[in-house]
Amino acid sequence: MNANEAVIKALVTKGKPMKAGEIAEATGIxxxxxxxxxxxxxxxxxxxxxxxxxxDIKS
Length: 59
Known about the structure:
This protein has about 60 residues and is mostly helical. The chain has a single domain (about 5-55), classed as Winged helix-like DNA-binding domain superfamily/Winged helix DNA-binding domain (Arc Repressor Mutant, subunit A, Orthogonal Bundle), CATH 1.10.10. It is built from three helices and two strands, in the order H-H-H-E-E. It has a two-stranded antiparallel sheet. Helix 1 (about 5-15) packs across helix 2. The radius of gyration is 10 Å and the shape is globular.
C-alpha cells in the first residue's frame, strides 16, 4: 500500500477530519511523506480541509 492509499484508509477508518501528525501515527508513515501525499490528494480533489490543518475525505 502506498502513502496515498494509507492516508485515505486512515481517514475512512477514523471517520473524522485528522491532522497530518495524527494520520502519520495511525499509519506508521513519516509525517513528511504524509504531508506530500495530502498535497497530491488535495490536488486530485480526493481530500479537502474543512478546518485549517485538518483533512478529510471529499464526499
